[in-house]
Hints:
Elements: H1 6-32, H2 36-72, H3 82-109, H4 117-150
Helix pairs in contact: 1-2, 1-4, 2-3, 3-4
Amino acid sequence: MYTYTKQQLFFTAEMCLSMGSLMSGLNILFRLGFTAAALTTFLSGWAPTILVAFAWNLAVAAPVTNLLISVFATTPQQSLDPDRAQQIHQWATILIMCLSMSTWGMVIAGVLPGLPVSALLFTWVRSFALAYIIRGLVVRPTATAVLHRVFPG
């Protein structure tokens, strides 16, 4: 079983807190607009969403990502190709977390059962595009800076 360092757990918590908050807030704004109902909806589902994201990341996304890295980033000499491992880690994590958490959002909103497949695919594509941009421009650089401030060296 994989064990996490304090730094890895802290970074994972930062990423889940930031991405969960921003993506949940944006998706609620897209659905309800900038209203009091949107704020109430966001606040009522915020803590469960962050907790589910953190648990899902540790229990599912990280082990699947580590498996993919061990299968596809290992050279014939049984050494790890660090560049390939980093690419697999970044893409696998965002794909797994984005698709599963956007589906979680639809489930807790009660819209998944009656949602046409085209709307589901549109939501997944929109969520992935937003998550990729937000993670790259805001969340990952901020989380990395905070991590280095909290755990210097």
